[in-house]
Amino acid sequence: xxxxxxxxxxxxxxxxxxxxxxxxxxxxxxxxxxxxxxxxxxxxxxxxxxxxxxxxxxxxxxxxxxxxxxxxxxxxxxxxxxxxxxxxxxxxxxxxxxxxxxxxxxxxxxxxxxxxxxxxxxxxxxxxxxxxxxxxxxxxxxxxxxxxxxxxxxxxxxxxxxxxxxxxxxxxxxxxxxxxxxxxxxxxxxxxxxxxxxxxxxxxxxxxxxxxxxxxxxxxxxxxxxxxxxxxxxxxxxxxxxxxxxxxxxxxxxxxxxxxxxxxxxxxxxxxxxxxxxxxxxxxxxxxxxxxxxxxxxxxxxxxxxxxxxxxxxxxxxxxxxxxxxxxxxxxxxxxxxxxxxxxxxxxxxxxxxxxxxxxxxxxxxxxxxxxxxxxxxxxxxxxxxxxxxxxxxxxxxxxxxxxxxxxxxxxxxxxxxxxxxxxxxxxxxxxxxxxxxxxxxxxxxxxxxxxxxxxxxxxxxxxxxxxxxxxxxxxxxxxxxxxxxxxxxxxxxxxxxxxxxxxxxxxxxxxx
Amino acid sequence: xxxxxxxxxxxxxxxxxxxxxxxxxxxxxxxxxxxxxxxxxxxxxxxxxxxxxxxxxxxxxxxxxxxxxxxxxxxxxxxxxxxxxxxxxxxxxxxxxxxxxxxxxxxxxxxxxxxxxxxxxxxxxxxxxxxxxxxxxxxxxxxxxxxxxxxxxxxxxxxxxxxxxxxxxxxxxxxxxxxxxxxxxxxxxxxxxxxxxxxxxxxxxxxxxxxxxxxxxxxxxxxxxxxxxxxxxxxxxxxxxxxxxxxxxxxxxxxxxxxxxxxxxxxxxxxxxxxxxxxxxxxxxxxxxxxxxxxxxxxxxxxxxxxxxxxxxxxxxxxxxxxxxxxxxxxxxxxxxxxxxxxxxxxxxxxxxxxxxx
Lengths: 513, 358
What we know:
The complex is a heterodimer.
Chain A: H1 2-22, H2 26-43, H3 51-83, H4 91-116, H5 122-144, H6 149-171, H7 180-193, E1 194-195, E2 200-201, H8 204-223, H9 231-251, E3 257-258, H10 260-269, E4 277-279, E5 301-302, E6 306-307, H11 313-336, H12 338-348, H13 350-355, H14 360-386, H15 396-409, H16 414-447, H17 454-463, H18 470-484, H19 493-499, H20 504-512
Antiparallel strand pairs in A: 1-2, 3-4, 5-6
Helix pairs in contact in A: 1-2, 1-3, 2-3, 2-4, 2-5, 3-4, 5-11, 6-11, 6-14, 6-15, 6-16, 7-8, 7-9, 7-14, 8-14, 11-14, 12-14, 15-16, 15-18, 19-20
Chain B: H1 2-20, H2 28-37, H3 39-70, H4 77-95, H5 103-133, H6 142-163, E1 180-181, H7 191-194, H8 205-227, H9 229-239, H10 241-246, H11 251-277, E2 279-280, H12 284-299, H13 304-326, H14 330-344
Antiparallel strand pairs in B: 1-2
């Protein structure tokens, strides 16, 4: 019971924060999303005999959330807006917005609660609910004028990355700190094959598979030297690769290759013209565009929709959603397969696994290849979506952010990883920028005019910027998660036992599994 | 038969290097002609590499000490060094010293900033150990590593924030993220010229001072670890923590002491880099940290002499690569060295290869 109340308050606080920051109809949208979620959580671990009990729990949860939203709407409309330099809203407007949030949250809770009361079909219904939410989200988003779809597309791109990294780190237990390299390889493959800059413009639907395959091959190539290394050395070598790959992409701007034997003869004979030139003979070949990157990159096209446009998010959203759903299906099937069980075995104990006849080389390489495959997917989609790629996008912090998602959500658990991805990306790309904006206007209108000390004033104006705190927050997440809850928010039972100190209790837990 | 196969394999590798190397600056004929044309610039690069390598070695000592005692790659160490450089910059700025100040004034400023930045870094490192690593000492091996990556990000962000405090420290300049220029405090007298030797090689008192300070720190550390009671306790703890505990050594204190020493060295290195390269930026910890870690691994991680040797080798390698390959590729070459050592000789040059125990 205490747990349920705690999670309800957390959801309520998130909803209230959303309303405070975004205002407008965001209360209704977040009420819809979190109301459904709150009702689902409220019904977890309870015996729900009839739809009635489910509805009671769901409405309770939804109503609790709605009250948070209503109060936040009042605060936002009457108190917050004036301090940021906008005029306060009228009482009717505030009540409409807040009331809409309350009603929507309660209704969503009611619906979800009722669905949870359906007995054995409970799980299928939950998935159907999730599907409906995901499919209608961009439409509702447009209706409510919250403009979250662009961010959600980015969240889904990172969801692909997190799912892939989860194979390497979560399933096979190989800590990969250079995962962004495969993302870069996927993106650059797409760039090479479908950009007028290189004079190749292949169809996106073909290129995305090639990119994923190239990334998988790169996974094998980069994974092969690391096979003999254990734990932390492996992490450092992958980190080295993760640093080398962007450097290579950054610097492949002047390629001119001569056949070496002919070149040596030519220089011995003193006639450099005899050397056979292979690439970039007239002038050095510019493969990657250096810091400026590859731009533009071809976009996907479909018969009825035509070429995807940059400002129109709907087709992009459904495409990346499809990719994520496909990946989730593939990965959850992989997990239970022979290969998936082999990964679990080498993660638990490499020596024992090899003694049981598992081919370590093959299994580890498959983990790298599969993990890189999904990063290649993500890279190809990213390249086409942004329509330009730069080497600076793929630096170490991307690898760490994705690792952060996997660890926050729960190593080796697909639901957890997706949850971690949504939390981190939403905080990073949605809430932090908006918070920065609100704080800035608040400082400019209410605080700065009242500060007399010029040094303090300059400090407030330049250093109070939540966007500058991103790395701090990621770092803090990693440290706190490692100390407080190393198994993540939604733990995987085996992994949990492994990460906690090996006392008798948890060993018994593992044995009973 | 086997030998033929091997020979063909190596020939193919050589061919590939000759074919693809020039793209990354590894054009062997060109390098040979360049060296033949101007041997002095080779010596010059070796000297630059030696001084830079000495600084890298000091940072590498922090990695190697910590790894030797608790087998943790202290990922945050490079960024701690960056914070040390910021601390020195702040102190020098607070003294209000500009380029070409009198020797006494700048000497005092350097001494105070050495003490303060070493002290602050040592304190930070001990706090980090206490709150981010000690709770994880019995957890799985990867947990403290991940925690260290987190600490590293926190430090980087701290550096960014610090660099933005222009309202309190004017020396930080207008932009938080941009490189800050560190006043050129060390005297710059060409030693060879002062001795009356004509040459194209420049070796100034600035290089000499940095080199001497670095060597003094390293020798001091080696003497401390070899000949004092505490050093003995450190070695005992590194060898076998349980046995050391039984012998009455306060293991927690010894580990904290190790972090204290490593942190102080990082702070000192921060000051030295500021004085030598005259620029400080919040991202410099990452690259420097990786170079230093590479140095520690190259020499054999856990081995103090090895870290010094590795640091100098990496410094020389980077300097040569800057000159003869291409400075754009230097980082890639350093990482390539790291990968090659870890793959082919994980024990490093002076370390032993440890067999995995069941």
